[in-house]
Amino acid sequence: MIFFNGKHPSIREIAMNPTFADRGNLSSFCILTVMLLLFPAAVLALQYHETGIPVPGSQELITSAAATAQSGDQLLSTGNFEIRRPVGRILDRETWPDTDLPSAPTGIFLPAGDLNGDGRNDLIQTRLQLADLRTDNLSDLSDRTLIYYSGSFTGNHDQVIYDILLPAGDLTGDGKANLLGRDIFGNTTVYSHDGTTLQAASATTQVTLPAELTVTSSKWGTDIDGDGYEDFVFTLSPSGYPDAEFELFVLYGGNPDAELDVGVYDMRTILPEEFDGMRLTAVTDIFELDGAIHIILSMRSSLARRFAVILSIDETRTAAFVQAIQITDYNHFSAGRFFAAYLSPDGDPYLVASDFGFRPDRSFYFPPSAEEGEIFSNEPTALHPFRVWAAGDLNGDGTTNFAANESATGPLRFGGFPNGIAGGFTLGDHLPGFGTNGQLLTGDNFEFGDLTGDGSDNLIYSFRDGANASSGVLRIAGSEDGALTSEAFFYDEESFPLSANTAYALGDITGNGNDDFAVFFSKGLFAAGKLNFYEGGSNWQTPAASWTIPAGKTFIDIVSGRFTDTDRLDFVILFIEIPDLSTPQQRTAVLEFYTGGILAGQTPDKVLSDVDAYPGHSYTIGAINTMANAGDVTNSGYDDLLIASANVNDQTLGPLPALLYAGGTSFLENSPDAVFSFPAEDLGFGIGGALTGLGDINGDGIDDFAISNLSQGGTSDRMEFGSGRLGGRIHVYFGRDGDSNFGEPDITLRAGREAITSGMDMWLFGMSAIATGDFLGTGSRGLVAKPFTHADRTDATVGVPGVHIFQRNLLGEDPQPDQLLPLHSSIMAINPSAEFISTMGWALMAGIPDLTSNGRDELLIIGSSSGNTNAVLHYGRDPLSTVPDVVFESPNSSLTMGAPGAFINRHYRAAIGDFNGDGKLNFLAVQNDTNFPDSPVYLYELGRPGGVQVQVASTQPVDSGGGT
Description:
Elements: H1 9-15, E1 25-34, E2 44-52, E3 59-62, E4 66-71, E5 74-80, E6 82-84, E7 88-90, E8 110-113, E9 122-127, H2 138-141, E10 144-148, E11 159-161, E12 165-169, E13 178-181, E14 189-193, E15 198-202, E16 215-222, E17 231-236, E18 247-252, E19 261-266, H3 267-270, E20 279-289, E21 292-300, E22 306-313, E23 319-328, E24 337-341, E25 350-354, E26 363-366, E27 381-384, E28 388-392, E29 401-405, E30 412-416, E31 426-430, E32 458-465, E33 470-477, E34 485-491, E35 499-507, E36 516-522, E37 529-534, E38 545-549, E39 553-561, E40 570-577, E41 588-594, E42 606-609, H4 610-613, E43 626-631, E44 640-644, E45 658-661, E46 674-676, E47 687-695, E48 704-709, H5 714-721, E49 729-733, E50 747-749, H6 753-757, E51 760-763, E52 771-773, E53 782-785, E54 789-792, E55 795-799, E56 803-806, E57 819-821, H7 825-828, E58 844-848, E59 858-862, E60 871-874, E61 886-888, E62 911-913, E63 921-926, E64 937-943, E65 949-952
Parallel strand pairs: 3-65, 6-61
Antiparallel strand pairs: 1-2, 4-5, 7-64, 8-9, 9-10, 10-11, 12-13, 13-14, 14-15, 16-17, 17-18, 18-19, 20-21, 21-22, 22-23, 24-25, 25-26, 26-27, 28-29, 29-30, 30-31, 32-33, 33-34, 35-36, 36-37, 37-38, 39-40, 40-41, 41-42, 43-44, 44-45, 45-46, 47-48, 48-49, 49-50, 51-54, 52-53, 53-56, 54-55, 56-57, ...
């Protein structure tokens, strides 16, 4: 049987058939004391029991002992729930070439200074890796830092240290740079080179703060107080230490055998009164001017206004406020990057700002100021329309060079002011075009200095070349005549496996009577990959067909439906491809239609490009990013297809609308049958970030559908409710009988007014799968949605309930949620902190047909954002229990349940179906394992709809608020 999210009349018909009664056995688990594998020291005690499944009409009582999950001394959640583990898995490959590396060694390199004292600067790579309880192998249990001594840099690391280390400059004054262990206030560890290798030595500081605080930004390499030792400037995460939002720290270098001094600078006492409440985001640069050391900080106000704040610290280690420059009115996404750059040979620094969200001038500068008390002018001058990164003085003329995006999507060129500031910013040499997925140091500005010992600065550029299935590193050097040279170091791509990216439920597309599914495996964006199709009821390990996806063509999504034949399931695949690999920045989105039943061929029966869908658009990154089976919303007997751009405004056409193509014999051959646009208010993310077929919401027998508009209303929401990150609307359209004249939305949903006015942060409402079902038992279908963030507005790290349950008043005026469900950090997060998760952007949610035979559907939530693990099932009741009834446990703690795609290219459907052919529903979860060579796809069992009556435990979970 096929399962479309929210559209399952066939499931109900089949599920209620008594021939599907379970005649086997079911193992359930009773959890006594559990840490849910969230920490290395976690203890898991399990009691197993066999339960015979009765014939239909009797009841099975599921009761679980009290379960408590804790983080340190903090109680996170208490309640009863059943633990379930996978019943099967698919692995693409199990070999691994290098146990030091948990994945292919692409990624960001950090400059580390001259670690071994040979006159050449060195590099490190850090690999954040959560401890995995399946093994006691050190390389599997620990984070790691890879050391590259640059004089002999070949792309292979010279040393591995199983910890996350931070470049710290010459803290010990011996002429060699040091590395710091990240636990600065617990067990301070300083790494120094002994002539052969880096060795660790313990140190102490005179400041006592909670151990294991996370360093969020740092700068090093400057002797701030003039004592001959370089110093380490840093900021901390406020998680576990709220004052970190206001405090800047300096670890002052000194004799490693003595106690190291730490300067703690409280911005609440340093900043003038007009900046009260400003929060510290990052330290972004250090520069010297007229003999004084200045530090540039990124700070934000409560309204997310971004400021560059300049402090000075003198030889007595006293800090003073110098200047604050407002950069943007509103920017949630990025603190941006501020750095001092030398744009003319006269030696005066300019303040450069780059990477600020959706500003048209992504990079700009503030020239030196002649005003007393100011270093920089408060008025910006445009530098470049796209992002820039500081690259050091590559040609030795005393000015700063930049690596700069040539356009919104690349490629990268070098830029600078060849004749001083009057000459203007020009783009010169093109970085060698190794790729469609090149990566500079996007999070910060890093100047690597002299890596080869020839006296000139260098730049490191990591790349992945999808066209040639290769990846590696470019080391770039300049010269006095301005020409650039580069040397490439390649990794052996073939020695690293394909990873499973996403799983898709397809229904019975092969016609064998069982639900089928597909899994996409890839090595990265636009690298060669494969799409495997698996028949339901098979052995899982052997695909029925395996389609090679060539380099330069990346798979985005696949949906099935009765698009051209009411008795057959066909499918549509969305690709984004590079028509000409010599110009990788030019990309096209393409829909390929395939007739169901035959998987041997890979030639589409119909093709629709984004040029056909949106004539005249100017996107170079592909203008179609999301799609969904809307259901039969025109009552023709055929399913209909929704597509959308879900992207920022097109420079030519403005915000692109969502489109509907009606099913039938001419499917995808003509212009769209319906076009959906909304008021051009706050459309930064575009229309159609989530598209969903809802089944029949209003009870007229015709399918309905929803289109989310993630940013809509953000400005007006802030005006109505005050500060906070708000916005997002879900527009529901009722199906039409015989035509596609849908007109205005029949329902528009927003975050609950009570939730907003009570000080909650509900941002980008509708940015997740939208679930439907009769969860409360009212006899009508409800709708479940959530925002990207659901946090306490006064502290963004503290989560609040944010899963909105709309049912009773869904069809009324101004529908408000019946209930808000929380996402328990102790159950669904790898590293729990506050009681509830504050951000789970693209959770996969689905209504599951009644598994407990109480006349109510169940709610499945799969936490698919980075850092989340485990999935949960809430049995239908009125109201739903705030503690889940079933927890689907991740096999290891490093994984995230599912992989829905990038921020724009979102896959918003849980893969649910009867994949074993036994009448039970299952769901698939791709778990991208950072510790092991495989990215397995796990299958979890949900249960048999209507076949077994399960009585929800009469004793409700502790403090759950659950109904009967």
